[in-house]
Amino acid sequence: MRTPAVLTATLAAALLGACSSMYADKAAAPARASDGVLTGPNGMTLYVFDKDVAGSGKSTCNGPCATNWPPLMAAAGSQAGGGYSVVMRDDGAHQWAYHGKPLYYWIKDAKPGDRTGDGVNQVWHLARP
Fold this sequence. Notes:
The chain is an alpha+beta fold. The chain is about 25% helix and about 20% strand. The termini are far apart.
C-alpha cells in the first residue's frame, strides 16, 4: 500500500509533467495567430503559395522565388503538431507548413503588421489560422 506522501509525490510529478508538456507544445509552435493571420517568431506576416500542393511534403518555391519569399525554416529535429508539419526543400533544408501548406515571409514586408504580399501575382495569400 502506498503512503500519502508517496501518492502526493506521484500526483505532483504527474501534474508537473503535464504542465511541462503543455508549455513545450506552445513553445514549439513555429507561428502564432495575430489579427487573423499567422506570423513568424519575428512577428512578420506569413504567406502561402497557390502552387504548393497541401500535404505533398515539399515546397515549390526555390531559387529566386525563395529569395523574394523566404521560407519559415524549421530546425533539424523539429516536431510537427497542432496543424503544423515540416516539409522538405529542394536543398534538403526543412520548412514549416500549416495544414500541409509551406509558410513564407515576403521580402517587401518591412515591419511586423505589414501585409504587402497578399495577392501578389494572384498566387500568394495571407496564411490564416
